Every structure is written in structure tokens, then in C-alpha cells.
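Re: weekly structure request thread

Next one in the queue (475 aa):
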Amino acid sequence: MLRVLARTVVMLALAAAGGAGGWAVVARFWPLAVGGQGGHGLPGLRIGGVSVPEGADVRAFAAARATAFAARHLRLVVRDEGGVHTVVEASLGELGASVDVDAVTSRALRLGREGDAWTRVRLADRARHGDLDVPLAPSFDPAAVVSRLADDKLLLDTPALSARLDLDRHTTIAGRDGRALDLDATAGRIARAALDPSAAEVELPFVAVAPPVTRESLARLDISTVLATFRTYFSRRGDQGPRALNIEVAASHVDGLVIEPGHVVSFNDVVGARSEDNGFHRAFEIFKGEYTEGTGGGTCQVASTLHAVAFFGGLDVLERLPHSRPSAYIPAGLDATVVYPAVDLKVRNPFSFAVVVHASVGPSVLTMELLGADKPASVTFDKDVLSTTPFERKIEEDAGVASPRRKQKGIDGMVLARSRVVSFRDGTRRVETSRDVYPPTREVWLVPPGYDSGALPPLGEDMPGPTEPTPQAAR
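Done, posted below.
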């Protein structure tokens, strides 16, 4: 009762001081000065920049403003020499923005209900003139941005390319900076754009990634010692010509590769996409156990040769997958299949000095050397076939053949136990064991429509007489 009486005295004083206008203020704002308004706020109050309709429930209005805020879309774009490219278009809610409706409602309802009567009247007058706004004050979850852009980051990031040695010309090949999407800075830009109702676009920020090997560091290299050498052979005859060209292209990317102490290199990063833009040709390769034509066939021979020279040179093999069938150009257990960008070969230099890969291509041979300042270890390799699985026959009717033709020879599958022993000069040894699984490769026959498959020769045998040549080189 005393508080209401005090408010009454203040209001009467204000009215007396303001004359007729003062009495108008009292008449308009008396209910706010002496008591609450239930779930309604000050007349003219704004929430998130929009006026609350007279008589509207404040909480319901705040909830509607929060929903509209979360539904607002932003475009996340990349600007480069080719123009502006939209990477993601998503709502603020999908990008981790949210509004605490209860907190906004509480702030809105407290205005004009707390403090002395003069403060309440002043706030009510500001609301009436549209000068009192309760901000939505959104919060942001950076993890939502990371999750939303994780897949795009893999595509947008560009690995740095290290400087390389041109061992034949005794010169260096400059490296190139890479770039990485800065997810923390992205979250900050989204948060700032969300507070600007006119913002519809956010440019994604990147940070530069310096190459691990520079021209300056190459000047300090010592490559006087051969740690390992490995050769594989191929053909240039007939339809194998494009495959040989792909071997040359991939080997040119690997030649002169410098691996600093402790560093990891990725074959896919070094060689790049197997595309015509990157110099590769269409050639035969293995896909799901069968020969097919694809761009870059032959690249796996370069990867396998690199794996073998790294293996015998004592480097750590961090990621490697065998082929779906044994390869004719390299012993089983030493091959490595690669598919850009998903299947990779990664090796690490465990030594205290840098090592350099020297790759050279002759008329029918690919030779790789691993060079460095020292040879601290020797390597032995052993393998044992644990089990085999017989291959089966697949018959394909083809109206284009007049008589049966064996398209692909069958190969038994096997489980291979591998072991590598790395022996160091101080007498210590490191033994590594693993298993390779090669599924059986089906024998494939092309036959005329309606041909009796029972007339085919026994499994593993060919038709008597000359047959059409089939590609024999693996990827």
C-alpha cells in the first residue's frame, strides 16, 4: 500500500510539473507505474527490431521472432579468379544460431516494472516512440559450423606442394602454398552476419599453408647415399601405349620429392587428380577385379614402386591398400592401389635427415631410388601364403563376337602373411607383420547369344587356336 501511495505522489508531481501534457502522460502510463500488465509489455516495445502488436503476448511474439531469426538463410561463398561460388546455403539455425526465448521474454516484461516510478514512465515513453528494443541476443554453437562444413572443407582445402629436386637437370622446382578453410574464423563471420539483417552472404576465410620443403631447405640436402632401389617393368606395345604415358606423368610428379624428417607425404596429394587436365590419358586399369578403361590407368604401378622403395628404404608406411588382384609387375605384398582422392598411399620419414625420391622412366622400366645422407637400417621382406580361394567363371553374352573368347584370365584368391624386419646398426630390430587379402579374380568369357557354355574348355584353359589379345598389364 505504501509503495502504491509513493508512486501516486510521484505521478501527481509529474502531472503538476507538466501541466495539461503532464496529466496526459499520467493517464497513459499510470497502469505501468502502479502495477503489471500480465503477459503484455510496454506499448510500442520492439523485440529484435520489430514492434510488438498492442495486446500481443510477449512470449509468443518473442518465440515467433526467434523462429524467424533461425530460418533466415545465409550463403557461404568462395571468391577466386573464376568468380563467386556458393559452397553452402543454410539457415542460421542449421549453422548453430539459437535464441533463448525465455531470456528475451523476461527482459521484455521487466521493462517498466522495475525501478522507481520516474524510470518506469521514462521507459514507457521511449517504448511509445519506438526507441526501446529488446535484442534477440542469439548464441552460436561453433560445432554446428564445423559439422556442416566438414565435407566441404575436404574439397576446398588445397595441400601445399613442396619444392622438389630435378635430379637430371641439377636444379630445383619451386613449391606452392596451399590453403585451409579456417572454421573458427568462419563461425565468427557467421555470428557477425547474423546480427546484420541485411547480410545475405559470408565469404569463407582461408589460411595459407606453407610447404614443408622450400628451395632454401633443398640447398642443405645431402643425398650422397642410396637407401633403396626398386624397379618395375611395363609395355608400350599396342593398347598399352596410353598406360605407359600415364606412368611417365605420375613418375614426373614423384621424381625429386623431398620428405623431411618426421614428415608424412600423400601420393594423391603429390600426383594430384587423375584427369586429362593433369596430363593423364585413358588406359586400361582394374576396377572391381576386372579390366576396364579409365583415365589414369598405370598410376598404381607408380604408387606400387614408390611403396616398394619406401618399404625397403625403411620408411614408415602409414596407409596402403593392396590391389583387388595380384599385379604382374610387382610381387604380391608389395603392391599399392590408389584411387583419387579416396584410396591413398602415405609414408613417413622416421630418420633424422631428409630423403629424396628419384624416379626415372625408361623404354619399359620404372626405376625409383631413395636417397639420403645415410643408411641407418637394412630391411628384409618375407611372405607366406596362408590360404587360397579358387576362381570362378563368368560368362557374358555379346552379339559382337562370332565365337567364344576369353576376355580375362582367372586368378585364385589368397591370404598373404607379410613381415618386414628393419635392422639398425646398433643391433636393434623392428619386426612388422600384416596380412594382405586378394579376392579371387573371375575368369571372364564373351560368347555369342545362346551359346552352350558347356562347350567351353575346362576352367583356366583357353580355346585352341589363336585368340584376340587382351590387356595384361594391371593398374
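Confidence is low (pLDDT under 50) at residues 1-23, 29-36, 468-475. Residues 397 and 447 are 5 Å apart (CA to CA).
Next request, please.
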